[in-house]
Amino acid sequence: MIKAVVLLLFPLAIFSQVPVMPVTPQASQIQNYSNQNYTNSNNRNITTNTPTQFIDVRQTQQHQQIMREVEQNEKQRTETLNQIKSDINEVSSSLNYNLPSHSNEKGTEFYREVFDKMLLLNIQNYSVKDVNFDIENAYFENKLSKDEFDRIIKETAEFIMAKMREKNFDTNSNTAKNFILFEFFSQPMQVMGFKQKHFPIKYDFEDYWGRQNWSKMFVTKLIKSNTGQCHSMPLLYLTLAEAIGAEAYLSLSPNHSYIKFQDEKGKWYNLELTNAMLTVPSFILNNGYITAEAMQNKIYMQNLTKQQMLSQFYTDLASGYLHKYGYDEFVERVINKALELYPTSINANMVKANYNTEHLKYVVEILKIDAATQEGREKILHYPKAVEILEQMQKQYKVIDDLGFQYMPAEAYEKWLGSLKNEKNKQDNEREKEQLKRLTKALNDANKKMNKQSKS
Amino acid sequence: MRKNILLILLLLFSKFCVFAQNNDKMFEESYSLLNNMIETPSNYNFKKAVFAVENAYLDGKLDTTFVNNQIRILNSLSKSLVENRFLAYVERDKPTFNKWASVFEVMHDTIPLNIKDYVYKYIPFGYDFKDVFGHAKRENLFVSKLLETRKGNCHSLPYLYKILCEELGVEANLAIAPNHIYIKHKSAKFGWYNTELTSGIFPNDAWIMASGFVHIDAITNGVYMKALNNNESIALVLIDLADNYNAKFPNNDGTFVLKCAETAIKNYPFFATALILRAETHFKQIKKIQDKEKYNIAFEELEKEYAHIHEIGYRNMPDDMYLNWLVSLKTERSKYENKNLNIFNQK
Which partner from A12, B71, B92, B218 sits 20 to 30 angstroms from A310, CA to CA? Predict the structure, then answer.
């Protein structure tokens, strides 16, 4: 009896839900199928045990009769099934399961060009400025001027270096360079001999996820408007750091990225450019959507290596493409490259999961599967190729789940960023800033002394 | 006459020695039992491990009949909850989830019981604020004490919870926070979630992360907040055994304690409590070294041990801060509560 119950439960268990991917909520409808085992549902009624002592001859005959009938039925069933299968095979061999390609659309060639160019980069040594510009330029179909961009970055770097000299900062100190870069982002700045006056870069609250307009995420947009968000601001920081020879890293947290750098004593600082503040790790952990598993898998709060950063750029390339044209095989190719460089990248894994979801949605559509009903969903089992696509998606969701990812809603994100203005975070900011200032000053003094000594 | 007194004294003394040895023997036996559970995973039995360790400390005087009876009663109570009450949860792991929920209710909720037309009230387990670290009496940390007094702490409550889950045939992972033990489960609907038995709340990870005593490296390395597997859980019990041994034989030479610590560390390399116990025991041994040179060498080694403990992210949390933090879960409940888990009837 217990056995029978368990068998009854089994198909139910298999139908259960795949982790809900919040990024594409519309997909939840079709996430409910899985490869279920048909044989189980047939077997489940045959498990009743007849106590042998009650069987007499008549019963045995009856039994045999039944058995024969069952056998016959089974035979018929297999025949019809085979018939159906061959019919389906005929149909499905002519079906194309691939997402329709956008490669014929105008402008996609720029993306392919950048991708090919990126493949040639030296993973350990490439220019953040150039890669990022190429990616942004592909979105604008190569209509941006590289010379103009280069000139602005060069002049800004000169401006910042001049400020360092004016302030008598040690131009070889990584701490001092990062300190001045942070000031550049957060304070008005003027230097003797330079005509321009620089104003602090402001956070752009409007469409900060680039949903309506993807180019909101761009450094080129930031430069034009002097406003940015948590994608473009850290990227400009890294670009300028590269230009003045400072060492700084990108670091990720849920829906967010920020800058980390290490001072000469080995202490790490977190720069929250969106609010022009220095934060402590507990602020980031406090957002409530970082799980211990995410930390153990190192998907957040790590300083990205050059290689992981390149993976991030591939993800940016894929994101730009899919915002402009949609998902197709090109997105998969780019994102696989990103994952090859950084297998546990949460952003790349998310794009891949969304790609897999879109793929399944497409297949469900062309096979005319009704995902709303159980019967309709079961139809997918006749198409091994479609089942494979379904399984790929489930596998990808599991990867994200196992990485410890937790979806952070937009309101929670905004509330968390807003909490920076809390008294405690303000105090932390002041304390960190004070420490950084003191160290910069100490380093500068030491530097001056050294210079004096070498002169005398 | 004198001879006689001497003889009596000698006899008495030898008797003491035998007695002490017997105690020692029970600790050794417990160690072998635990070690065997690690080496032969099919022998794993958390209940057996915990009670063996408590029994060794109590010189074999643990009332096993009482303890087993209590566990049996709690087990049948949770079984009847699984069968008879409604739970709004529809994922594929409902049977498992239901068992977790029932054990939680047995630990935390007042349950009306209908026995022969009389309604009795089942009173759940409470938190004992007295001697939460077992400084005054090791027994205060024991599951057997919890079963007897129905009051426990962050040591005995999660242990009992885990035992009750395993009696029902489902897993429960222990997890460590500074000075603290809690429970982690992985469910289809909520992913990993925490169960805090001292207050009966399901806190989010931020509660521990933002306590101010957890360094990021400690989380990344799994010093804290890692769902412990069977061997790692036995490692915890091994350190209980070693601590009990130290409490019982304060002047021991450290051999037994080090044996426990080494086995625990082998199975859970980032287990801070074991690493600290090992370092402290080494320090005790080093203090006895007469030779200056040898002393210096040993001391340098010890410094390396402590540096390693610091490196993996461990920071000391003062005892009084611990209680403040524990209470913060109740005072700042809205901030630290996992709001997904509202399907439990909470008072």
Answer: B218
Residue of chain B minimizing CA distance to A405:
B191
Report phi then psi at A113, rounded to 5: -60, -50
d(CA A170, CA A168): 7
Cβ contact B125:B105 at 8 Å: no
Spatial separation of the C-alpha atoms in residues B332 and B214, rounded to whole Å:
19
* pLDDT tens figures, B214-223: 888 999 999 9
Side-chain-facing half-sphere of A302: CA atoms under 13 Å? 19
pLDDT in tens, A396-453: 999 999 999 988 888 888 888 888 888 778 888 888 888 888 888 887 787 777 777 7
Average pLDDT of chain B is 88
A16 contacts B188? CB cut-off 8 A: yes
**Helix, strand, or coil (residue B310):** helix
B185 touches chain A (CB under 8 A): no
**Best CA proximity match to B185, nearest among B162, B153, B213:** B162
Q: Residue A17 and residue B91: Cβ atoms within 8 Å?
A: yes
Which residue of chain A is at minimal alpha-carbon distance from B214? A282
Name the residue facing B210 among A12, A282, A291 (closest C-beta).
A282
Residue B219 forms contact with A (CB below 8 Å): yes
The structure tokens 């990344």 sit at B220
Name which of B176, B204, B209, B228 to mutate to probe chain A: the one with the most chain A Cβ atoms within 10 A of its Cβ.
B209
Instruction: Give the H/E segment covering residue B127.
Output: strand B126-127
> Which residues on chain A are in Cβ contact (under 8 Å) with B175?
292
**Number of Cβ within a 10 Å radius of residue A382:** 18
**Cβ A95 vs Cβ A366: under 8 Å:** yes
pTM, full prediction: 0.77
CA distance B214 to A289: 17
| Residue B220 to chain A, least CA–CA distance (Å) | 4
The residues, any chain, with a CB within 8 Å of residue A259's CB and separated by 6 or more, are: A234, A237, A238, A248, A249, A250, A251, A270, A271, A273
